[in-house]
Amino acid sequence: MLKGLGPDSFELHGRRIDLSLERQAITYVKALGEGHAISADVDLVADTIGLDLDQEQLVQTIAWGDSLKPRALTADYEIRGDSLAFDTPGQQLSEIRAFTGAWVGGKLDTLSRERDWITGDTIVASFARRDSAGTRRATLRQLAAAGSARSYYRIVDEKTNQARVSINYSRGDRITVRMKTSGPRAVDRVKIDGHVDGVHLRPVIPEADTTGSAATPAKGGR
C-alpha cells in the first residue's frame, strides 16, 4: 500500500506497486493486480492503476484492465469502461473520460436501487467545484456520450408526491446532458445528435368516476 498525505491525500493498493523517480521525487506510481485507489473525490478499482504526480500532487489517474475492468464511485455517480482517465489539476477533479463500453450511472435511487444512466463508445464527464454543506466538492457539470450513445432516465411527477414515474430511453450518435448550475443538482438540458430515436413511457392515470353512482348493498329478505 502507498499512502499520500496532505490536503490531496490518497491511498493506492495493489499486488505490486512500482515507483518512478525524477531528482529523488516520485513522478509516477503504478499498482498492478487488484488495484484500488481512494481519494477525496473518487473510489476506483481496476487491474492496473497509474498515478501521475507533479510536485507531490496528484494531477492524473489512469485505470485499465481485463479481469478487473475499471469501476469508479463518486459521491453521486458510478463510472465504468475498459479504461478510465481522471484529471485533477490543482488537486481538483475537473474531468473523467471513459473509453470502450463507457457507462455512467447517476445517484442510486433509494427505493428502486436503480440508477439513471448514459452509455456510449466514449463518455466525457466535466466537473466544477461547488459549495456543499460548507465545503467545496466536485459536482457534475456536463456528460457527453459519443458513438452508439444511449440514455435512460426517470422523471418523477412531483404533483403526485413521487408516486408516478415516467421513463425516457433515447439513442443517437451523440448525447449531451447539461446539469443545472444552481439549486438542486438535476438535468437542465439533453441534446441528441445524429440518428435519433427513442421512447417515452408515461404512467396511465385512472380517470375519476364522474357518474356519482355507487353500488347499493342488497337487502336481505325473510
Q: What is the CATH class name of the largest domain?
A: Mainly Beta
Mean pLDDT: 84
State the CATH topology of the largest domain. Answer: lipopolysaccharide transport protein A fold
- As laid out across the biggest beta sheet, the strand order is 5-6-9-10-8-7
Tell me the major beta sheet: 6 strands, antiparallel, barrel
How much helical structure, as a percent, in the residues?
under 10%
Tell the overall outline: elongated
> Which class of secondary structure composition applies to the elements?
mainly beta
How many structurally independent domains?
2
- The counted number of beta strands is 15
Give a quick summary of the entry.
The chain is mainly β and 222 residues long. The chain has two domains: 1-71, no CATH class; 74-203, lipopolysaccharide transport protein A fold, CATH 2.60.450.
Q: Describe it for me?
A:
Strand 3 (16-22) and strand 4 (25-39) form a beta hairpin. This protein has 2 domains: 1-71, no CATH class; 74-203, lipopolysaccharide transport protein A fold, CATH 2.60.450. The radius of gyration is 24 Å and the shape is elongated. Helices cover 0% and strands 61% of the residues. The chain contains no helices and 15 strands. With 222 residues, the protein is mainly β. Strands 5-6-9-10-8-7 form a 6-stranded antiparallel beta barrel.
List keywords for this structure.
61% strand; six-stranded antiparallel beta barrel; 222 residues; mainly beta; lipopolysaccharide transport protein A fold; 0% helix; elongated; 2 domains
